[in-house]
Amino acid sequence: AQSVTQLGSHVSVSEGALVLLRCNYSSSVPPYLFWYVQYPNQGLQLLLKYTSAATLVKGINGFEAEFKKSETSFHLTKPSAHMSDAAEYFCAVSDQAAGNKLTFGGGTRVLVKP
Amino acid sequence: GAVVSQHPSWVICKSGTSVKIECRSLDFQATTMFWYRQFPKQSLMLMATSNEGSKATYEQGVEKDKFLINHASLTLSTLTVTSAHPEDSSFYICSAILGVVAEAFFGQGTRLTVV
Lengths: 114, 115
Fold this sequence. Notes:
With 114 residues, chain A is an all-beta fold.
């Protein structure tokens, strides 16, 4: 079975500061990993994905994530936070054997302080 | 990118009535769609996997007779909440898989309030 753990349900950063959201996964097969962002009362928008190509993945809105197999991690970073980055972020792992069913982490809510 | 449209975006219904939520892939065909439920300030909980032309696969603990799923075409899946009660109030989200990129695209969600 696959699982995802996001460390920290809430993260508060100052505008312009580094954003770091942690994600660790468990998977018995090489994983496909995803980061999604959710704004209030909306669906999920894909930020970036890892599908066994480059371990450093660049996404939209200046976000990037690095796949580290030895640490079973896929942490999300952004060098400089913007007020518009305030949202809920979800890390997910895909089960390719089950029609690409996603298992989500608990989510991390990001607050950006002016 | 691929677009998934979910309708309605919000609905209020009376206790005991049924509500149907539609999930459409607008510019691609999806043999598999997923339905999730999300409680306030929580993550997404998978309810069921919807497969075109066959019965849905429900996750453990999800009542299949209460949450009816139909995937009649490659672009449409519906979730019907039957005999809704206040405890069914929640945010429901669907996703469709674009197979060639193994990526899920999400609808905008439906806020259901049962009064």
